UniProtKB/TrEMBL annotation:
It comes from Novispirillum itersonii (Aquaspirillum itersonii). Residues 31-256 form the Copper-binding protein MbnP-like domain. It comes from the Bacteria. This is Putative repeat protein (TIGR04052 family). The keyword Signal applies. The lineage of its organism: Bacteria, Pseudomonadati, Pseudomonadota, Alphaproteobacteria, Rhodospirillales.
Length: 295
């Protein structure tokens, strides 16, 4: 009887060990990731509707009127350099691999409405990640679709670029104190940066394919980025370094991504894009996007 009891206890221990080994062998599930984005002017946080200075510009204070951008191809980078795509969680702010970051709040001096979105969320396989990459832009297959029938976040009329049959990938609009002087002597309140594909041909309404000579999609890689404790900063001081926001040199006020727009060269140089070809420059320019501690 004692031998039988010992044998039974032995079987139970073996069974428990098998369960433990099975549990240890089960691969971990995907981990949820939230990547915050923020706006800065150098080291100073920037909020829509609040005046701020651009370090090193020597110009007057400016007030951010609007800041929005689409990002795609988001991936975390493992220590060995492998990029692992982030599977976005569907919502009104992100769908079909594209997310809209929206910093305007509709407050006084600020465009839009109260709804904002300052982070992308999704899942990746469990692992250790040390970097981040993404592209500012919208994939060609989604870019040239109607805002009237396309689901959010590609249904935002304010991000539609009808004259180029696509989306504004990034818009940053600022109001410098004293306004923007135009060549004819008139003054405009706002200096506009609208980044998007240009020189596009084809009619998507009629089912035709659209091709653009200058894609102007901006790939960004942050090789040292901790997704647990860091955020991505868009540095407006770096973006507008070399740009006189109080003066426009002709055409639509500011930079509309046109290859002959005299206001675009310093902005495109800061972004690391060729104004002539719409392709990334090599070697890369000083980063407009950089990692900062998440707040």
């Amino acid at each position: 009887m004692r031998r039988s009891a010992r044998f039974t206890r032995g079987l139970a221990a073996l069974a428990l060990g098998a369960v433990t080994l099975t549990a240890c062998a089960t691969p971990p599930g995907p981990q949820t990731v939230r990547i915050p984005f923020t706006l800065t002017a150098g080291a100073t946080p920037v909020q829509c509707g609040t005046p701020f200075s651009l370090p090193g510009s020597g110009g007057p204070a400016v007030t951010l009127r609007d800041a929005r951008l689409y990002v795609q191809d988001i991936a975390l980078i493992e220590a060995g350099g492998t990029a692992v795509p982030l599977t976005l969680t569907d919502s009104d702010w992100q769908r079909q691999g594209v997310a809209l970051l929206d910093f305007e709040s509709g407050s006084p001096g600020c465009a839009g409405n109260a709804a904002v979105n300052t982070a992308v969320t999704g899942t990746v396989p469990a692992g250790s990640y040390t970097g981040l990459r993404f592209t500012v832009g919208v994939p060609p297959a989604l870019n040239h679709t109607s805002v009237e029938v396309t689901p959010a976040p590609l249904d935002v009329v304010a991000m539609n670029w009808s004259w180029q049959a696509g989306r504004k990938f990034m818009k940053v609009e600022v109001n410098p104190a004293g306004g923007v002087r135009k060549p004819d002597g008139a003054t405009a309140p706002t200096w506009f940066l609208h980044l998007g594909s240009t020189d596009c041909t084809g009619n998507p309404v009629q089912g035709g394919a659209v091709t653009c000579q200058r894609p102007n999609r901006l790939p960004v890689t942050l090789p040292a980025f901790d997704p647990v404790r860091q955020a991505v900063a868009l540095d407006l001081a770096a973006l507008f370094r070399g740009t006189d926001l109080t003066r426009d040199q002709g055409g639509a006020v500011g930079c509309m991504s046109g290859p002959t727009d005299a206001d675009c060269p310093p902005v495109f140089a800061a972004l690391g894009l060729s104004l002539t070809t719409g392709q990334p420059l090599a070697p890369p320019q000083p980063p407009v996007f950089r990692p900062v501690e998440a707040r």
